[in-house]
Sequence to fold (624 residues):
Amino acid sequence: MSGPAFSDVLAAAARIAPHVHHTPVVRSHLLDEWAGAAMHLKTENLQRVGAFKMRGATNAVLQLSDEVAARGVAAHSSGNHAQALALAARVRGIPAHIVMPRDAPAVKKAAVAGYGARIIECEPTQAAREAAVADVIAETGAVEIHPYDNDHIIAGAGTAALELMREVTDLDAVVAPVGGGGLLSGTSLAVHGIDPAVRVIGAEPLAADDAARSLAAGHPLPQPSPTTIADGLRTGLSERTFAIISAHAEQIVTVTEDQIVEAMRMVWTRAKLIIEPSAAVAVAAVRSLDLRGARTGVILSGGNVDLDALPW
Amino acid sequence: MSGPAFSDVLAAAARIAPHVHHTPVVRSHLLDEWAGAAMHLKTENLQRVGAFKMRGATNAVLQLSDEVAARGVAAHSSGNHAQALALAARVRGIPAHIVMPRDAPAVKKAAVAGYGARIIECEPTQAAREAAVADVIAETGAVEIHPYDNDHIIAGAGTAALELMREVTDLDAVVAPVGGGGLLSGTSLAVHGIDPAVRVIGAEPLAADDAARSLAAGHPLPQPSPTTIADGLRTGLSERTFAIISAHAEQIVTVTEDQIVEAMRMVWTRAKLIIEPSAAVAVAAVRSLDLRGARTGVILSGGNVDLDALPW
Fold:
């Protein structure tokens, strides 16, 4: 498996540019003081669908042949990938079939439906989700777009860090959260494609620390029963993302649930940006490191939260 | 009274550039659908101290002679001007004396103190505030920097719209909230200095509609007992701001408290930006107008809110 390369990130950036936001890089002196580092916040919470996922989904959907695309795309997801794939399919004018567990929040189902996707409900188990996707593929001929174990998704995800590296040309380190590893993989390719000397650091919840354990073990380990508030980071690495991350990431920093909530609130309060817990994991990791004022890029991965159920 | 001119806004932009953020212009398709206009959000909530006030305060403080500056600056304010003047003074390395009512939120006092200002507490009445400022000026020789009835403050406030007009070169209209009128005055000078054909529209709470009534009457009317949630917009126009606004603003749109809260929540939910009620007034105004997709600039004036007392 050769996997995606920096050139794929460059190509993705050109391909998706008409359909995604070039998100701003935001600074906050007060947040820097708190974190102990000069943070350059890449605001993917301001991306379409409120998450970096729009980049990969768009890159994947745009590369389908017309014949394949006409049959539609499919995925199981209760998170940001569902919305991103639904919108990317609408951008191309093709069907999207999204398998969502019955207990997914109504607001997430409404968002996916709002982008014109067909929602297939299933029992809230991994087996039921995979079976439902297999059924819809058998029925429609749709192609499955995996949320991270996919070269096009990874290359698309990397375009956020590519924009960041081009805009801030003297970074010392770039920090991104890691769940399934798509974002950190793409970030690795983009950062080291531009400057191999820049440190690439992953951030994950201690309560879902499979990436840290996997790097220590030298092979991907599963993530059984994660309990973190960072709902976007509960998945485990694939062979594909493990290979990229282990080649590029200097370390995976783990943070506690309390650190995640504290960082989330600090970003809301100081930087006036609504970020979800998964994005706060990266900010919490910066504070927990001794970066001594290093110029640090931070990928704020998304901002989809329930305003009526805030964790403080 | 000649008042500030477009050239003053241009000079202010150059003067304050090293000390303030060039804030991004943010788009949100979903927010546009809701509002019925293509909104270009000038994110002054991401400005230093979380509000556009940093621009005017910096412009005013930097224009003091060394001799005057050394004696310090003074103001009475329980809002964003207090923090902005405190930080602007710290930037110049001079004292700031901020009169705040005893019942001002502890978090606001802490923020002002955090910027190194001296806080003088007084009874929560206009008379007590003005007397306390007079006392501190008599005692220290400090110069009062009024929050809006000041040419330098107005010119500095206009630099936000200046940046917006330079970045988005084909706007049809620019909407800004109006309280004392400093922001709308500066916005008027900047917008019409660049393109006199662009519509300048003010937005204010119906519960504090002195600007709308003043424009209708042809002279500034007071704002007795405003009760709006938009705490930044409870003040009334001065002769100075009335003169500029009446010469430039096409209209003042008034919005209800329910419209303000709805718009605030929509910006949080759709655009992932934390804005305060005063900023939401401008967004609510856009929605209430029939702009039919017009390219509209909106000044999001600030983002300082109490996360533990949200209005929904």
Notes: The first strand of chain B starts at residue 25 and ends at 26. Chain B has a mean pLDDT of 96.
